Amino acid sequence: MDWNYQQPVKIIFGNGKLSELKEVITQLGETDGILICSRSFRKSGLADKVIAEADGLLTAVYSDVSPNPEVSEVDACAELMRENGSKFVVALGGGSVMDLAKAAATIATVDESIRLYHGTGEALPETFLPLIAVPTTSGTGSEVTSVSVLSDHATGKKAPIFSPNFFPAYAVVDPELTYTCPPTVTACSGIDVLCQSIEGYWSVNHQPICDALAIHAAKLVFEYLQLAYTNPYDTTAREKMAEASVIAGLAFALPKTTSSHAVSYPLTNLYGIPHGEACGLTIDYFAKVNAQLETDGRVTAFAKALGFADAAAMAEAITALKKQIGLRTDLVGLDLSDAQVDELVQLSHHPNLDNNPVKITDDILYDLFGTLTKKDMYVEQP
After folding, report:
1. Residues 135 and 143: beta-carbon distance below 8 Å
2. What pLDDT sits at residue 377?
3. CB 345 within 8 A of CB 338
């Protein structure tokens, strides 16, 4: 077995670590940075707190970030960076903020639109501004990955861009920043952590270091996600979910995700289902299908490593967990037509599907959506 492992991000983890932000920025050796965050953090005062911690080193703020960041927002942020003469970036938030920040930090150096690189396969320029990632959710793992997932409303496209540029220079992971996450965000981001762990292990690109990380992160989610959801100020639960998030990010950063993430993109694009919830919607189904069709036993081995009898038992535990934290377990409420299901099947053929341990056919996808909609689905023969 041949494999490589690289993780260039310096991770600074612990309660209260936000107070070390100025020291981290000083290590970059740059001034005149830009803070990228959500509008809610401008209103809540958290953005002001971060600016104060930076002690004059942050001289601009961009906060027009959508839950599914759009290419026009990346371009607008990059233009502000150019106008401000920004030399580095601090991204404060969840995956949406970090995805936008990563892309803008590169585009700002070349005065181009991110549209030139979104879903086109074109390699990004090699120049970029250094990024400090400060996650406020325990979910995406974006603080340690080289991917930016963006949407283009004009074309209806949502696609990831991969680039070594996108690895942050530093990840400042302070679990205390997750205390004020609404329960829904805790649930959606937490189930995303579980999907990242499982899919990173399943991926055809798997390798032993990431395997070990995936098992560690998944165990933490099963033990602590419900507690963090029901008791958001539980210090241990929040700390362990923050740990699970960053470890899961390390687990899938190189192997990449698989079937559940592939199917999640059209569910989010077409029906507005939050990314983590959309991934979690199908992960239990794919656990059973992959275990039934696999030839090397890795899916079953992963379930057993977590203490389950087999993949089916793990799938049942995932379903139960989703119910406990208020996440959807089907699509019945959308009342999807056959034509809409056809569209979902076709759009699920995302490149991530190629990472899945078994081939996912249209028949499997129709069975999946039939299960989720409680309808009899079939593939029409020519």
Report:
1. yes
2. 58
3. no
